[in-house]
Each structure stands twice: as structure tokens, then as C-alpha cells.
Amino acid sequence: MGIISRGFSGRSREHNPALPPGQYLTEDFPVLSAGPTPDVDTAEWEFSIRTESGAVHKWDWEQLQALPIEEVGTHIHCVTRWSKLGTSWRGVSLDTLFAEVETSNDYVMAHSYGGYTTNVPLEDLLDGKAWIAFEFDGEPLEAEHGGPARLLIPHLYFWKSAKWIRGLVMQSDDEPGFWEQNGYHLYGDPWLEQRYW
């Protein structure tokens, strides 16, 4: 008959209901990127949304800053198993940016300076679920964390929150982006542990 010690129960979710399965808490903000960090000057930065009709909606840095800015308090979860709770961001809601965009497509490919891409269903960008974030913890977003601006979709694994965001292209199909082509899950829900195919 075996003896089970209460001290040897494996790594738990630390009894925190905000922590998805398989994740551990970190106080740090780990830096993980698919390539080198691009140097993007706000004077040259531009964000666009391109629809299936060829219409392009564009904002430069000053135009983005002139839009309604929201404070976002949220948890973030990386596919590499770390979670950071209670993070603080500032940015522009995708609801604001899509207000004048007409599309019948259901999917988006996010494109970053540096060439990174990731796919997202349009419904995951709207209704207060996603932002173009440019501040973290009261400071301008550092380049290593995606500054000057990144996509922020906190309800999905963090690889979906594309760093150095430069645009969204509407798509009729859910075509895979960079990490999705390399084995990551097409959607990436941390609560369902949708890490890989």
C-alpha cells in the first residue's frame, strides 16, 4: 500500500480561478518573438484595415491618439505556460476602428512590422474584446513587448496579440498565420488548452 504525502501533489494551478489549465503565474513579463525586434518610429507608424472590396482604412500615430482611448485591466496567458494577472494597458478598441469598415468576411489576418502574421476570427476583435495597445503599466509600450503598438486580444493565447501591428486584412476563410502554419492551434483558447494542432 502506497503512502501519499500532501506535499507531493505536482504543480497545481496555485488555486487561482483566474489561471487557465496548465499555466503558472509570473511577476515578470517574458519576451518571446518569432524574429528580431523591428525599430518602428511613431512618425512612420501606420495602421490599416483592408477589406475584401479593396477599401483601405488608415490611421497614422496622431490619428490613432486622437481616437477614444480606453484603460484595459486584464490577464494575459502565453502558450509557453506563463500567465500574468492584473495587467494594465491603454489603447484604442477595435470596435472604434471597425466603426466605418464594411465587410462581410468573418476572418482577419493580422500583419506586423517585421513580417509576422496571425489569424483571428473577426468576432474575437469586436464587442470590447480587443485593442490596439500602446501603453503598458502607465508607460509607452517598449519595443521588445511590441511597441509602439500591438494587438491585444487577452482572451486568446498571447501569440494572437501580434506585436508591432501594422494592419488587418479581411479574409473569407480562416487561413493560418505564422505560428499556426508551424503547429500552433488555429484558434488558441487558453481555457481549452488549444496550444497546438
Automatic annotation (TrEMBL):
Location of the Oxidoreductase molybdopterin-binding domain: 35-179
Protein name in the entry: Sulfite oxidase-like oxidoreductase
Region: Disordered, residue numbers: 1-24
Residue ranges that the Swiss-Prot or TrEMBL entry lists as coiled coil: none
Entries under CDD domains matching the protein: arch_bact_SO_family_Moco
Organism of this sequence: Lacisediminihabitans profunda
InterPro entries in the record: OxRdtase_Mopterin-bd_dom, OxRdtase_Mopterin-bd_sf
